Amino acid sequence: MLFWILAAFLTFVAAFAVLRPFAVRNGQADDAPAHDIEVYRDQLDEVERDAERGLIGPQEAEQARAEIGRRILKASEAADSQAGKRNASRRVTQLTAAIAVLAVPLVSWGLYVFTGSPNMPAQPFHARATEEPANAPIDELVTRAEAHLAENPDDARGWQVLAPVYMRIGRFGDAQTALRNIMRISGDSAELQSALGEAIVGGAQGMVTAEAEEAFNAAIALDPKEPRARFFLGLALAQDGKTEDAQAMWRDMLADLPAESPWRVAARQALLSSGDTSVAAAETAPTGPSDEDVAAAAELSQADRQDMIEGMVASLDAKLQENPDDMDGWQRLIRSYIVLKRPEDAKAALERAVAALGADAPESQELKAFADSLGIKSE
């Protein structure tokens, strides 16, 4: 109700401001007959003064008075006629202006009554965001969380919620602050130290700095098998040019990680990027090699080892022809062909996989994206 009262009041004020100039009579309007009448009256006064001084005779004075009187009468008639026309024109103008000004709010209000929702309750943005936080934009949620933590800096749960959000939106400096606050309140842990190291690496554009290494080493001291710390420490070795040491760390990491660990993918990709082709054999083999197989492979020459890897890849290719629904198998086959520097075979495998899975299937789209990340473009 308050909204409608304010709207009506503001509409009245605006209409009054527009109509007021039309209602005020212009006292400076050009009125020629009235001016002539004033001139004729001055002439009458001058005739009287001349007659009193004897400059003109009585008969001449009477004639002059009669002539000036006729002119005054004629000017008065003209003034009355112009005043009538001017008043009529002013009334038409005022009426037109009033109709035009009043039509705007009346028409708009009328349209709103029929097309709008005048009975809908007010929905302030802050109230809606408070009632339905899931519908609020991420920036709004972060701002609200920051305001809460500014008043409650020892709320460990709040910092735990905010830290990964900072990482996801690229605010690595704020993520470091959040992680340090968590450690200050809840105590140190290998996971928190490794997360802090990752935030430092993110802020350094992917470089593992000395500060980041310190955090990762602190994580390893608390848990020697912490996967994130081991991965980034291997990356630090690779960035320092110690490729073989980095590969050894990643291979040890793969040997310790459970099969469902997401860090297995990162370690494999790192080994492949560093030129370690032995990971291709590990990925393409249907089961892990036995100790005898590993010992035999170690004694093979480079050419024989390459033949063994290609044999495993061919075996996987044959299995996929029998079981074309194996999404992970297709990914391993495409990656293996890339490692073996056979991009045409990788592209052919991608085309066969898409044909087997269906061109419009979600698996095919995922596989195309995977191949694209390896430099293989689908047709």
From TrEMBL:
Its main location: other. Residues 147-262 form the Cytochrome c-type biogenesis protein H TPR domain. It is found in: Cell envelope. Keywords: Cytochrome c-type biogenesis, Repeat, TPR repeat. InterPro entries: C-type_cytochrome_biogenesis, Cyt_c_biogenesis_CcmI, TPR-like_helical_dom_sf, TPR_CcmH_CycH. The keyword Repeat applies. Pfam families: TPR_CcmH_CycH. NCBIfam families: cytochro_ccmI (TIGR03142). This is C-type cytochrome biogenesis protein CcmI. The lineage of its organism: Bacteria, Pseudomonadati, Pseudomonadota, Alphaproteobacteria, Hyphomicrobiales. The gene is ccmI.
